[in-house]
Amino acid sequence: MSKNNFKSLLKSSRMDLGLSQKELATLIGTSPAIVSKYESGKSQPRTDTIKKIASVLKLSDQVLLDSLTLPSDEQIEIPYFELSACEEQPGYRMQPLPKKSIYILEDSLAQLNPSSLPIFATSAFGESMTPLINHNDIVFIKNEPSSQFIDGKIYALVFQNHIFIKRVFITKLNGLELHSANPQYPPIVVNAEQMRFLKIIGLVIYRAGYI
Which of 30, 91, 132, 208 is the most exposed, fewest CB within 10 Å of its CB? Predict the structure, then answer.
């Protein structure tokens, strides 16, 4: 096991400063139970939390972010891709970044993805899904392109040459409404005729932290 993976680095750095899990939790604004999950590898912090941890533990943000890409013995690799829309509607590209693979406990992945469909990781961009999903949060997407949506679930999709992560609701007129978590962003209405310009990338099943 690498001593520099996130959970090991977090625990050793905390202990080097003589902090208990409870004390660290108080300083970063979370609970001791969450810190325990971080140190056991059962959960990973969001980007904004990583910055708080780095400040308290006197580490650089990048050191902690890089540590998330180092596996422990109990973890398996999730490939990381950058997504971009294509000019040909509705299409998208997946650019692999091998050095930015993300790791998760095998048991946790089995709970998230009991069907064992392909999963990949990517970063969320923008503020439309805050506070549920923040800018630069890592999300896991179950790569199951299909014309069938589960009403009320969060999807990554491409529409009119833009990549979106939105909560999707099916309308009575065979269209969709794409809802943001941030109330400053109004729903995007996709009518039945516009559905041909929309393509599902996959179902969002996890973000670093919780979903």
Answer: 91
Is residue 170 within 8 Å of residue 103, measured between CB atoms?
no
Predicted local distance difference test score (pLDDT) of residue 2? 47
pLDDT at 41: 78
Cβ atoms of residues 71 and 2 within 8 Å: yes
Of 55, 50, 23, 26, the closest CA to residue 38 belongs to 50
Looking from the CA of 99 toward its CB, the CA atoms found within 13 Å total 2
Phi, psi of 183 (to 5 degrees): -65, -15
- Residue 31 φ then ψ, to 5°: -105, 155
Neighbours of 94 (CB within 10 A): 13
Tell whether the model's pLDDT for residue 183 goes beyond 80.
yes
How does 129-161 read in b/e, with b if 16+ C-beta sit within 10 Å? bbebbbeebbbbbbbeeeeeeeeeebbbbbbee
Distance CA 195, CA 63 (A): 43
Higher pLDDT, 44 or 22: 22
Side chain identity, residue 166: K
Q: Are 77 and 71 in contact (CB under 8 A)?
A: yes
User: Which of these ranges, 28-37, 38-47, 99-108, 125-134, has the smallest mean pLDDT?
Assistant: 99-108
User: Omega into 187 within 30° of 0, i.e. cis?
Assistant: no
Q: Which residue has the higher pLDDT, 1 or 108?
A: 108
